[in-house]
Each structure stands twice: as C-alpha cells, then as structure tokens.
Design goal:
The two termini are about 45 Å apart. It contains eleven helices and 15 strands. The strands form four sheets. Strands 9-8-7-6-10 form a five-stranded antiparallel sheet. A five-stranded mixed sheet has the order 11-12-13-15-14. It folds into three domains: about 80 residues; about 150 residues, C8orf32 fold, CATH 3.10.620.30; about 80 residues, Translation Initiation Factor IF3 (2-Layer Sandwich), CATH 3.30.110.
Length: about 375
C-alpha cells in the first residue's frame, strides 16, 4: 500500500487520517477524534485517505462534521469531533464486492509477481476492455465501480488503477487536476506510476476513450507520458507530485500524442465524460474443432458487449469470450452480468452456464 498523500498531511490531518483508517477497518460510517481540527485539515485528510486507500470503496466523497463542545456545556472529556460518511453499499454488498475485487487482484499478482511495466500495461488493458465510462452517479467514483460494476468515471477508474497497482507492487498515486479536449475542460483524475525508477503519467480514462471499440491491438495513448507530453491536455499541481521527465515511451504509443476523445461537460466532481461508442458484436469464425456451436456463436471482448446481447431478451446465448482471463474468471463475470441483468429488470431467473469447445452457452429461464 503506497500512502503518498498521507505523507503530505500536517499533524492535525494525520490525526483525522488515522481515525478514518480505524473506522474503515470496521466498516463504520463515522470517525471520532478529540479536539478541534480546522475544516481545511479535515477536508485534506479525507481526500488523502480516499486517494491512498481505494480498497475502502464503501465511502463516498461526501461527509458531515459534527462537533461537540467542551465543559461546562459539553462533554467532560473535552471537545470531540465526529466525521460522518455515507456508506454506498450494504454490509452484504461490501463483502461480496470486496471478495470479487480481491480475487481479481490475486489473479494479477499470480500473473505478474514482479510488477513492472508489463503488469502496468495489463492493468491499463483490463480497464480499456472491461470498463464503460459513465458519469453522474456517486457510485461511479470508487474502485468498485470499475473493478466490480464495470462502469465508472475518471475518479473511479484512477482509484481502480491504484488498487491493482498497489496489489502488484507498483507505486501509484491518484492525481486530481483538470483535463481538456475538443469540447472543453473540467475536473479530472488520473495516476502517476513509478516504473523502473522513473515516474510517468498514466491516464486510463483517456486511454479508454482512445479505444472506443476496445479492439486489439490497443492504442496506448496517455500511457507513461512525461509532464511535457501531458501538459497539452492536463493541468495539475506540479509541486505536489513527483516530476515525470522520461520520454522513452512516447514514440510508440500506437497513435498521435492527443487521443481523439469526445467530451461533454459534467457537473460531477473530477468527471471528464469520455463518450464511448459500442463495439459491433462480431460473429465468431467457424472452427472445425468447435463444430456447429462455434459457427453460430458471437464473439465478445468485454462484459459490456455481453450485456448488449442480453438486452435482446433471448433465452439462450452462445458466445466466444476473447480475453486473457482464466475460464473460472470468465464464468464469474458472465454469471454476474446475467444476474445483474435479471435484477435490474426485477425478474426471477434461473441462469445456467456451460463451456464446450471454446464456446460459452448461457441460458436464462424466467
């Protein structure tokens, strides 16, 4: 766990940070600490904690400060401050989401025990292939929104990147600033990572926007950029983060320096609303080994393409899932998407999955 923003807090902010950490370990919606602490220190500590600890996805960015006075009018122990948070999920949801996120992180750890640039690239690719950009929802601003619900805005995407980087041993910082494009600018969040001793900017949201169809090979725009390359579209407090000076990744990104992302202005904190176009679902090629099942199957490369298929309302689907996930993880993602589909429509379903000759068959009985 790389607690970069904690290191920049003053003594009062550190007290708030520690109280939040104690509360988060217990899934509590309140953090208590004694004495009067300025509102600015509380705000800075809250932002630092949420940026450093994406694993505590249950907390939104909104909080309420309650102060209780000192004697003789107040409490005998002296002045007390209570920081109240809104929990975004129920205890059951928190356990289920955390288990899924940890399983995904464990898979990355097994594949990339030494971390490094290959692991970072895999994280960026996972975001590009599995996350849909979505705004105007407080639940889209945490790591779970990207890693579990596969729908997030920039703050959720950047925290998801940090969550995975933390687990595979890559120093990673969530950076808040401003992003700009063809349709204006607005609050934005991205990451700075340390690879082979050098610091780089990694904007997985812009990379996602530069790959609207999530088709291979990906265009690795905004991947390991220097300050000089980043400054044309991003503004940030340079004094608060490490300098990114190495340019060795900028000549082979698979495209020009500025990704052609479409944006609209959104009144959501840290949101850069990249619009993604849905990838057309391609028919899988007929394979002699796969037989007649494969000839009628449809190829997908992300869960969102599968959800598009589910919107047809058919009873059975045959698909080829083109991804790097092991079969067990594929099964979990497909089952979760089908369950979400039924739950969102308030219908009771029996879902069955089977796999044969490279083809998944999903049957939904209502």
């Amino acid at each position: 766990m790389y607690e970069y923003w904690k290191q920049r807090l003053d003594a009062q902010g550190l007290r708030v940070y520690a109280a939040m950490e104690r509360a988060a370990q217990q899934n509590s919606d309140r953090a208590d600490f004694s004495g009067a602490i300025p509102a600015a220190s509380i705000s800075a500590a809250t932002e630092a904690f949420l940026g450093d600890h994406p694993e505590f996805f249950q907390y939104g960015s909104e909080f309420q400060v309650v102060r209780r006075g000192a004697p003789p009018m107040g409490y005998p122990q002296g002045e007390e401050t209570i920081l109240r948070f809104k929990l975004l999920y129920s205890p059951f949801e928190i356990r289920r989401i955390r288990a899924s996120m940890e399983k995904l992180a464990d898979d990355f750890q097994r594949r990339f025990p030494a971390g490094g640039e290959a692991a970072e690239r895999a994280v960026a690719e996972w975001i590009a292939r599995n996350v849909k950009y979505n705004i105007n929802n407080t639940r889209n601003q945490n790591a779970a929104s990207a890693l579990y619900f596969h729908s997030a805005q920039c703050s959720g995407i950047s925290r998801a990147v940090k969550y995975l980087c933390d687990r595979i041993g890559i120093e990673c910082i969530v950076v808040a600033g401003t992003g700009s494009g063809q349709n204006g600018s607005g609050p934005h969040a991205w990451n700075i990572v340390r690879i082979n001793g050098n610091y780089y900017h990694l904007d997985a949201t812009y990379l996602l926007g530069a790959n609207p169809n999530a088709s291979a090979p990906l265009r690795y725009l905004y991947f390991n950029y220097s300050d000089a390359a980043m400054q044309s579209t991003h503004v940030w407090d340079r004094a608060s983060v490490p300098v990114c000076s190495d340019t060795s990744y900028e000549g082979a990104q698979g495209g020009e320096a500025q990704a052609p992302v479409q944006r609209t202005q959104a009144p959501v904190q840290r949101a850069i609303p990249v619009q993604r176009t849905q990838a057309p679902v391609q028919r899988a090629p007929v394979n002699a080994e796969q037989g007649s099942a494969a000839s009628s199957a449809e190829t997908i490369s992300s869960i969102y393409e599968f959800k598009r298929l589910l919107s047809r309302g058919e009873r059975s689907y045959s698909i080829v899932y083109r991804c790097e996930f092991p079969l067990q993880r594929q099964q979990e993602l497909l089952m979760q998407a089908a369950q979400d589909h039924c739950r969102e429509r308030n219908i009771s379903c029996t879902i069955r999955l089977s796999f044969r000759d490279g083809v998944w068959t999903i049957t939904i009985d209502k």
